[in-house]
C-alpha cells in the first residue's frame, strides 16, 4: 500500500446516508453499453441506490451528458448518477469512503483499481469470462477468500448486488476485514512471490538447457 492511503476506514456510507452507493473508479475505456445496462439493472433492483463513477475523463461535460443519457434510457434518474473527474491519488483512495459496493466492468476488469477498492474495505462484484483480462478481479477475490463475489452470469451479478445491499452487517464486516484478508494473502507475500518466480525461472532454464 502507498504511504498516503488512509490508515483508518470509515463505516460503509449507507450507515450515514440511508441508501446504498455503488461505484467504479475504473478507466472509462472499459465501459460500454452492456456494462451500463447491467449496472442499470443493479440500480433498478436496489431502490434508492446511487452510482458513483470516477475517472479523469469525467471532466468532459459531453461525456458526462452521454453517460447520464444512457442510464436515463434504462430508467435511472440523472440524480442517481454521480460522475467525478480527476484528482490526486490520495483523494482517489479517500473517496472510497463514499462507496458501499464496487461494480467491476467486463470483459476488461479492474486490476489495480480492484486492489485499491478491496484495500479500502469495499467489496467488488465481478463477472469473469474466458480471457485473462476478464479474470483479474476474479483471481484477487479468490486469493483473499472471497470467491462468492465472483459470479457466473449477469443475473447472479444483480442478485449478489441486491443481497449485499440488503445486508448492512455483512458490509460493515467486510469494511473492517478486507484489509486484513489482503495482508494475510499471497497478494502481499513479496518473499513468497519472489521464491515462486525464482523456482519457475530455474525450471524454465533447465527445460531449455536440456532440450
UniProtKB/TrEMBL annotation:
Keywords: Glycosyltransferase, Repeat, TPR repeat, Transferase. InterPro entries: Glycosyltr_41/O-GlcNAc_trsf, OGT/SEC/SPY_C. Residues 20-194 form the O-GlcNAc transferase C-terminal domain. GO terms for molecular function: glycosyltransferase activity. The keyword Cytoplasm does not apply. Pathway: Protein modification; protein glycosylation. The keyword tRNA processing does not apply. This is O-GlcNAc transferase C-terminal domain-containing protein. The lineage of its organism: Bacteria, Pseudomonadati, Pseudomonadota, Gammaproteobacteria, Chromatiales.
